[in-house]
Specification:
single chain; binds pterin cytosine dinucleotide; seven-stranded mixed beta sheet; alpha+beta; 24% strand; 784 residues; five-stranded mixed beta sheet
Length: 784
């Protein structure tokens, strides 16, 4: 049976998120709400220098301060680490991975921890941290990704002798020839600004030792299961003695998909002192100590025939790793590696990534991870190529769209389904491009300062991480499966345990929708448990828009097992063939005689009592499924942005945004709209506002919400969303992931619109973010 074949009650319905009431009424439980007796507060002393050697460190005054329990420098904790901090993605055999420990005496970025203070209260710990006297010898810093491999660049890790972390390539055979044979070759350079995640809840972690050598780590994390494995390995603990709980988590966007120094410190020190240790990040501290995203420079080439047929794409990317490799830092570019050809049928393909170290906060996965970077350079260059060929920008896209599915990309992966033309058609229906062009022409003619531009982005992306065998082939250390358990309890309610770990995505609601439909019960009877390794012992957690296409599908398979087991029980009790039974809306009946029926609830009770089960059958009605997807998930669509640019000040404002996405079957349209809204806000922020910058000494210049411009609702228009649906044939629900689509598609649409708004003034390129200064300068230079 396939969920997409039948009309269902809950799947597809805008069920209100059950998570919201407790959160909105202040009944959530975040890490900082928990303070078991004896909890001490931890504060990390951080290097003010981006590259330095600690020549002396004096902790005496701090140790003697009020309320202080202990102070440790890096050397004091050396024996606590059984291994360096983990990087789970050694993308090549030769990749350089400098040892990285929670505290150091050779800080390599501003904010690198050099000591830690524990005190009875956070205020006392913070005051005492200022009394730790650290002498540094400061060294020259390497800051810019584009200059990291220059001959005279300071080397971040002198032992490595180079700032090169790795070079990774993906090439098809015909590479060179396709370029030579092309009529037109367009090459552009692009900068992906460094982005600084700003989840509502900063990071927080609390390690609580138990009474029998066990320990519970409460952490604001996206990955309780992975965290448990890696904390246990790094500290030499037995996994079964470590319980990790992700309580309510106020967003992550990738930044809580990591194993952080503070988590390891809290656990190590809680064990040493045998008392709970809590660390809560301050917002400005988070700017330094939580991973950053992006920071790529890319040279991108498209080659085409005169008629617009694209024959080749080539990307040469230099990607900042930051000072160290965090959990998946080196793999972030690879997450976009297969889609540098966009939703277009381009036969020749070549991608080269060079990862480089800089004296900056480590980068890692941030919403979209690798795919916004790829989509941006393609969609910007599609516009440039159209101009070069004298072909309409949308016609060029249509001509090159992949039209038949499944389609194997030149990069090697197979896109299971899609209909990019349908998304574009729908977008144009909503947009009324003629009216826009009339208005744009009128404004251009009037020559006033407020000019309009429209920009497009047609995209697809690969998410739903991911088939384990592919992850293995590209050297990622973990699998891409997930697990789900369904328990039909004797009282009639249904308990769901998932290996995913939502931190804002609404799984409690969506998972209940899936199970209630499948088992034919009321949604309120379904309870969804997650984020606690003592409840769900295995799982692969939440990132990469994987939870529905992997964890949700695991749930569906567990439901199928429940129905099958129940069918065997009924067949046995009624002495009929299992195949003669029908199951619909929570009730079994014999085909053709609907009078005799029994409910799943009655069967659950009977399976628990176990008085009359088939020989050899285990009591209780529960089932677990572990699902490893056969393919990635391939959402796609077409987006358009309309911006107004003040040509006198360079101020660019987004006035309209229309997005048509195909995320397969939609389980909950309200959640999905919320996901797209949030994703769009983050992509638009990249295009117009956000940019983390350092001075040449490696001081972060954008270390707070005043200098790092996170847009608010006031900067964003009401988004206009619509859908086309090609259900994924690779899973029984027909679903594709949605969590990152908005971020992936939106930055190029907005930037193409900004450039369109000033193209009549001769502007052909502006780098992100399109700040008033950049736009103004671009106009001035074009007019000069
Ligand atoms: N969904 C649906 N129908 C679909 C696709 C998804 O109803 N066809 C629903 C799902 O049931 C789920 C939600 O949409 O409730 C997101 O599903 P999915 O696309 O599987 O993404 P994940 O749940 O795996 O979430 C991860 C994704 C990522 S990678 C980032 S980054 C991100 C995002 O989710 N971070 C977020 N959305 C976020 N939302 C919040 N509030 N906070 C974050 O940190």
């Amino acid at each position: 049976m396939s969920a997409t074949e039948e009309r269902t009650a809950y799947i597809g319905a805008p069920v209100k998120r059950r998570e919201d009431r407790p959160l909105l009424t202040g009944r959530g439980t975040f890490v900082d709400n928990m303070s078991p007796a004896g909890t001490v507060a931890m504060v990390v002393v951080r290097s003010p220098y981006a590259n330095a050697t600690v020549t002396s460190i004096d902790t005496k005054a701090a140790s003697e301060a009020d309320g202080v329990v202990a102070v440790f420098a890096a050397k004091d904790l050396q024996d606590d680490w059984k291994a360096a901090m983990p990087c789970a993605w050694p993308v090549t055999e030769e990749m350089r991975n400098p040892p990285h420990y929670p505290l150091t005496s050779t800080p390599r970025y501003q904010g690198d921890g050099v000591a830690v203070v524990l005190a009875e209260s956070r205020a006392q710990a913070r005051d005492a941290a200022e009394l730790v006297e650290v002498e540094y010898e400061s060294l020259d810093a390497c800051v810019e990704v584009a200059k990291a491999l220059d001959d005279n660049a300071p080397v971040v890790h002198p032992d490595l002798g180079t700032n090169e972390c790795y070079v990774w390539t993906l090439e098809t055979d015909a590479t060179g020839e396709a370029l030579d044979d092309a009529d037109v070759v367009v090459t552009r350079s692009y900068v992906q600004p460094r982005l600084i995640p700003n989840a509502m809840e900063p990071r927080a972690t609390l390690a609580v030792p138990g009474l029998v050598g066990d320990l519970t780590l409460y952490s604001a994390t996206q990955i309780p299961h992975i965290l448990r494995v890696l904390v246990a390995a790094t500290l030499g603990m037995h996994e079964s003695k470590l319980r990790v709980v992700a309580p309510d988590v106020g967003g992550g966007f990738g930044s809580k998909l990591d194993v952080y120094a503070e988590e390891l410190l809290a656990v190590a020190l809680a064990r040493r002192l045998d008392t709970p240790v809590k660390w809560v990040e301050e917002r400005s501290e988070g700017y330094l100590a939580t991973i950053h995203g992006r920071d790529f420079v890319t040279q991108y080439t498209l080659a085409a025939k005169k008629d617009g047929t694209i024959t080749h794409c080539r990307a040469k990317v230099t990607a900042a790793m930051g000072a160290y490799l965090q959990l998946v830092t080196p793999g972030v570019p690879l997450l976009g590696a297969w889609i540098y050809g966009g939703p277009y049928a381009i036969p020749n393909y070549s991608v080269e990534f060079t990862g480089v170290f800089t004296n900056t906060t480590p980068t890692d996965a941030y919403r979209g991870a690798g795919r916004p970077e790829a989509t941006y350079v393609i969609e910007r260059t599609m516009d440039a190529l159209a101009d070069e060929l004298g072909i309409d920008k949308l016609e060029l896209r249509r001509k090159n769209f992949i039209k038949e599915f499944p389609f194997t990309l030149a990069s090697g992966l197979t896109v299971d389904c899609g209909d990019y033309e349908a998304s574009l058609d729908k977008l144009l229906e909503l947009l009324d491009l003629d009216a826009f062009h009339t208005e744009q022409a009128k404004r251009r003619e009037n020559g006033g300062p407020k000019q309009l531009g429209v920009g497009f982005s047609t995209y697809h992306e690969m998410c739903g991480l991911a088939p384990s065998r592919i992850l293995g082939a590209i050297r990622y250390a973990a699998g891409g499966w997930d697990q789900a358990t369904i328990r039909c309890l004797p009282t009639g309610s249904v308990q769901v345990i998932t290996g995913t770990s939502p931190h804002g995505q609404g799984h409690e609601t969506a998972w209940a929708q899936i199970v209630a439909d499948q088992l034919g019960c009321d949604i309120d009877e379904v309870e969804v448990l997650h984020g606690d390794t003592s409840i769900s012992s295995i799982g692969m957690d939440t990132y990469g828009s994987r939870s529905l296409p992997v964890g949700g599908v695991a749930l569906w398979h567990a439901g199928e097992k429940i129905i099958e087991k129940a069918r065997q029980i009924v067949a046995h009790q009624w002495e009929v063939a299992a195949d003669d039974l029908e199951f619909a809306e929570g009730t079994f009946s014999v085909k053709g005689s609907p009078d005799k029926e029994t409910t799943l609830k009655a069967i659950a009770f009977g399976a628990w009592a176990a008085h009359d089960l088939p020989d050899g059958m285990e009591p209780t009605l529960e089932a677990t499924a572990v699902y490893d997807p056969p393919n990635f998930s391939w959402p796609g669509g077409a987006h358009a942005a309309i911006v107004e640019v003040d040509t006198e000040t360079g101020d660019a404002r987004l006035v309209r945004y229309v997005a048509v996405d195909d995320v397969g079957t939609i389980v909950n349209p309200v959640i999905v709209e919320g996901q797209v809204h949030g994703g769009l806000a983050q992509g638009i922020a990249t295009a117009l506002y956000e940019e983390g910058t350092y001075d040449e000494d490696g001081n972060l210049q954008t270390a707070n919400l005043v200098t790092y411009l996170v847009p608010t609702a006031a900067e964003l228009p009401s988004f206009e969303l619509a859908w086309t649906t090609t259900p994924s044939p690779t899973n029984p629900l027909g679903v594709k992931g949605v969590g990152e689509t908005g971020t992936i598609a939106s930055a190029p649409a907005v930037m193409n619109a900004v450039i369109d708004a000033v193209s009549h003034l001769g502007v052909t390129d502006i780098q992100m973010p399109a700040t008033p200064e950049r736009v103004w300068r671009a106009i001035e230079e074009a007019q000069a």
